[in-house]
């Protein structure tokens, strides 16, 4: 049995890249992953570089999928698209009949906006990368009334409602880009 002092992996801000075009890329170590420090559930694929575009974190099995990240490097009044670049391994399981949510909000106490997607339709196909949500989730940066100074953008990938065990997902990165 795995012994872990802290079961969840916390984001390492050094694993975020901002491209010349202003797109923010959150590599696997920049993600906060529930149960991410427990090798029964998740595995970080070996990489010596925190910003390795070939890196990934692999979901072995969980019933509670929660992968999040945040940034304060957004501008009030601007609209941003958020999402994740993922792939499914040939032995992926548990994705039939479940909806995966990509959710985003402005400020810690902000209201979530979301899009749903299904990975079930992609099972049994090749393990090529694809972006979720398919059509993108856009959010305008407006400070919430409950906390006017907090314009940070929080977003994540969630499937916590079905109670089904699922695995075989690889997360290559998350992204934020100005629309």
From TrEMBL:
<protein>
    <recommendedName>
        <fullName>Protein PHLOEM PROTEIN 2-LIKE A9-like</fullName>
    </recommendedName>
</protein>
<dbReference type="Pfam" id="PF14299">
    <property type="entry name" value="PP2"/>
</dbReference>
<dbReference type="InterPro" id="IPR025886">
    <property type="entry name" value="PP2-like"/>
</dbReference>
């Amino acid at each position: 049995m795995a012994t872990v002092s802290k079961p969840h992996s916390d984001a390492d801000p050094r694993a975020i890249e901002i491209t010349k075009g202003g797109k923010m890329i959150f590599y696997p170590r920049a993600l906060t992953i529930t149960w991410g420090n427990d090798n029964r559930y998740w595995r970080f694929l070996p990489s010596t570089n925190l910003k390795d575009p070939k890196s990934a974190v692999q979901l072995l099995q969980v019933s509670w999928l929660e992968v999040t990240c945040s940034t304060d490097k957004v501008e009030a009044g601007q609209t941003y698209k958020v999402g994740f670049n993922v792939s499914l391994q040939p032995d992926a399981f548990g994705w039939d009949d479940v909806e995966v949510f990509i959710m985003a909000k402005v400020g810690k106490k902000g209201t979530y906006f979301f899009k749903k997607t299904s990975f079930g339709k992609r099972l049994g196909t090749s393990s090529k990368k694809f972006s979720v949500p398919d059509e993108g989730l856009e959010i305008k940066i407006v400070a919430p009334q409950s906390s006017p100074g907090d314009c940070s953008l929080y977003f994540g990938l969630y499937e916590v409602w079905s109670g089904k065990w699922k695995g075989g997902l690889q997360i290559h990165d998350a992204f934020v880009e100005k629309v």
